[in-house]
Amino acid sequence: MKVLLSGATGFIGRYLLDELLKNDHKIYAIVRKFNLSLDSRVEQINLSSLNTLDETFDVFINLAGENIASKPWSEKRKTALYESRIGLTDQIRRNLMNPPKRVISMSAVGYYGVAREGVFNENTLHKAGFAHELCDAWEKTAMLFPDPQAVVIFRLGVVLGVGGALDKMRLPFKLGLGGPLTDGKQWFSWIHINDVINAIVSAMADKSYEGVYNLVAPEFIDQKTFAKYYAKSLNRSAILPTPRWVLNLIFGEMATLLTEGPKITPSRLQEKNFEFEYKDLKAALFDIEEKHQLR
């Protein structure tokens, strides 16, 4: 396949490239400037040059987007998050000479907003808030490609692998500071990186994929249980909770992502009998730590 990829140097992008290159796909990566870290088999192209590329891509995989949880949500930060998702997706659509045959675009379970009560599947009504507004606008922009029935959107939970979110958590947990956040009863929707890659590859090959899918593991886990399992994978304990007021002081409005996670179910993937490689959080975390040690 001819594959156009945004976010190729990001956490998910690096894993996905490894998988795609094994299968001899022709990869075009959208980059700001030439990146020496990318495999030489990947053709690098900047955004402004897309309209000179007379190619019809079999699939455009849209992974770009700044980390929503890396900095507090100032107005400047909100604008940057919006532009890195909605703005970039729209620019790519407008700059392509020929529309892709298929679009696979990311979103997040932040779409559902702030809630602890109830179970959210792909058709559940959302709660209001910035995270929902950002994800909703991103999804609607992806749906503007000429054939909306050829668009697949994955609403990601916290993606666990060597790198990404776990790398940011690793040091505090190693120091014994990785206890539950507030009471730890908020839901923690997670997905192993292997299952993210498998879902994307499945949607590339299987044209029956269409619309929105929650890309989270089917196991319901609260944040306190996640903290306990992750600490155990590092041979540490997770006892001391982080008070809500501390998170509010540090993160402001963004603290709700950490303290009020909704309970998400991957209903549509289960209906398609998608085979999750990692359904169990404890097994997923021990697998990742083993790989981290081999790095």
Automatic annotation (TrEMBL):
Highest taxon in the source lineage? Bacteria
> What SUPFAM superfamilies does this protein map onto?
NAD(P)-binding Rossmann-fold domains
The record, for InterPro entries, names: DUF1731, Epimerase_deHydtase, NAD(P)-bd_dom_sf, SDR39U1
Q: Where is the NAD-dependent epimerase/dehydratase domain?
A: 3-214
Give all residue intervals belonging to the DUF1731 domain: 242-287
User: Of which family is this protein a member?
Assistant: Belongs to the NAD(P)-dependent epimerase/dehydratase family. SDR39U1 subfamily.
What is this protein's record name?
TIGR01777 family protein
